[in-house]
Design goal:
InterPro entries: Metal-dep_hydrolase_composite, Metal_Hydrolase. With 165 residues, the protein is of the alpha/beta class. The chain folds into 2 domains: 53 residues, Urease, subunit C, domain 1 (Roll), CATH 2.30.40; 94 residues, no CATH class. It is built from 4 helices and 9 strands. The strands form 3 sheets. Strands 1, 2, 3, 4 and 5 form a 5-stranded mixed β-sheet that branches. The protein has a two-stranded parallel sheet with strand order 6-9. β1 and β2 form a beta hairpin. The longest helix has 13 residues.
Length: 165
């Protein structure tokens, strides 16, 4: 239901009390959205004669676009597949530095690894919430139907299987 007449009837969401990034400046403005698209509020009001169906107060926060990286193996000298004692600080470092590249959220990727890597990689999520959307594991921990010569299978048991992802 994008655009056209049906789109004009879709609910309009108004973000209020926010700072919006335009060019190099943060402006205090409202942002109007319908079906995931930013709207021109003047056109909405004067041509469509519509007001917002729902309003959300942003509390003065910055509202800006950002990329979501759903597969990142690490960065800035950090490898998420290394079973270190301090995985959380590595993830926090990547979260801090990746912002300058426009990435606002990411899923650390744990490539096929021994169980202790998954356990450490999955448990830090509950301790820290720095810009992560979950954990990405690109291959199953055990693929009994078609194992490759390089794949070692570990059954999906142990404390990492119950970690909050």
């Amino acid at each position: 239901m994008r655009g056209g007449q049906d789109g004009a009837r879709a609910p309009v969401l108004q973000f209020t009390n926010c700072r919006i990034l335009r060019g190099q400046a943060l402006l205090r403005e409202d942002l109007w959205v319908r079906e995931g698209r930013v709207l021109d509020p003047e056109k909405l009001f004067f041509e469509e004669r519509r007001v917002a169906d729902e309003r959300r107060d942003c509390g003065g926060c910055i509202l800006a676009p950002g990329f979501i990286d759903v597969q990142i193996n690490g960065g800035f000298g950090v490898d998420f597949s290394q079973a270190t004692e301090d995985v959380g600080s590595g993830v926090a470092l990547v979260a801090q530095r990746i912002l300058s590249h426009g990435v606002t959220s990411f899923c650390p990727t744990l490539v096929t690894s021994p169980p202790e890597v998954y356990h450490k990689g999955c448990t830090w999520r509950a301790r820290s919430s720095v810009g992560r959307s979950g954990v990405h594991t690109p291959k199953p921990t055990c693929a009994p139907l078609r194992p490759t010569p390089s794949m070692t299978c570990w059954p999906p048991t142990g404390p990492w299987t119950t970690s909050a992802l």
